[in-house]
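Workshop exercise sheet. Pairs work together: one partner reads the sequence aloud, the other fills in the structure field after running the prediction. Swap roles for the next sheet.
Pair: D.N. / O.F.
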Amino acid sequence: MASTATPSISPELRSLLRRLKLGRSLDTLPERLALARQNSLGHAEFLELVFADEVERRDRTSAGLRARAAHLDPTMVLDAWDDTAAVTYDRALWAELTTLRFVEDANNVLALGPVGVGKTFMATALGHIGVRRRTSVHFERADQLLKRLKASRLDASHDAEMRKLIKVDLLIIDDFALTAMDPAETADVYELVVERHRRAATVITSNRDPAEWLAVMADALLAQSAIDRLTSAAYELVLEGESYRRRQKPTPPGGPGRPGTAGHTKPEANDS
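Structure field:
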């Protein structure tokens, strides 16, 4: 009867793997050796298995680093979206957007709806998909972005900051037009939209309909020009329903009616 003991790794092999910068493969190598022995894998098949593990690990690590650099919330990924949430939206359109063809075509996405329905979550999820496909992504809340650009004028870095934003493949601006914009902020929005129009994809989330954006921008002419360009090349994903954030509320250990479920209590669908 074949032994089922997990094979040991010699110190010499450990040293060689580390010199080749393959030290992390030691995490799964004993199991892969056991699997190779049980299935009588050839040398080439075994190497393919080990190297596939290493490539997957490096891709995962690289995607995590790029997601952090893009300022994406690590919890807002596509697989984490709760399909039982009482939020309605065009699911066929959402399925199309997750292919990221809109990025390839340099089109935009406007995620619109009331507070808390999941606009930021969906926009961030698109960013994560882009990161995994090695698309350059940048996520930033609108007020912070405009404040940062205004500050960059003081140290003469404004042009450099604008070039970075114009160049990125997928720019995600969260909570757009939530507060009034002054002339400098309106001009920055105009420049970003004009320079990226039909050249790169932009995702915008907003609690306001595009028709309301004009009222919060300081220069009506620049505002009209920017809004027209932005919307003429945009898919509109409208979300409606209950607050998605309420489903993410923490609950006390052994919450009401759920004794003995510390750390595992999940809000009911009608929780408010």
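Discussion prompt: Residues 149 and 223 are 18 Å apart (CA to CA). What would you look at next?
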